[in-house]
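PROTOCOL LOG
Step 1. Enter all chains and additional molecules of the complex.
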Amino acid sequence: STVLPPSLPPYFIRGSIIQLADGELKRVEDLKTEDFIQSAEISSELKIDSSTVERIERSHTSPNFAVVQFSVGEHRTQVSVEVLLEYPFFVFGQGWSSCCPDRTTQLLELPCTKLSVGDVCISLTLKNLK
Amino acid sequence: VPVFPWHSLVPFLAPTQSD
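Step 2. Run joint prediction.
Step 3. Record the structure below.
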């Protein structure tokens, strides 16, 4: 399945204020892996899944987009996402990463590393899904 | 100043059904 998220949301801009599940406020660039894990533990609806990057390709439809293929969760479900090259994903133990970190840093001022095959990203699922 | 919930930063990559 291919999902097309909205272009580039404002909350990825450096300095954006993010509220964790326990109410604590943090800047987007200061978020740590534990912030997501602890927030998901508190949440009654959401749980964190590990999504491993399996392939990264240039989009056939637009030069500004990439298609990232993930292997999601324990069932290793294959999911492809078409995103802007600068769209950041949060990699476990590493932080924000994108297909084109230079563009991410330039456009959002968000410190970012290069998203690579094998990286394990944080993604969400609904807790009641079986 | 807008405040965004933590989960808006995380993509929903879950399949609708996993069985």
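Step 4. Note key features.
The mean pLDDT of chain B is 81.
Chain B has no helices and one strand.
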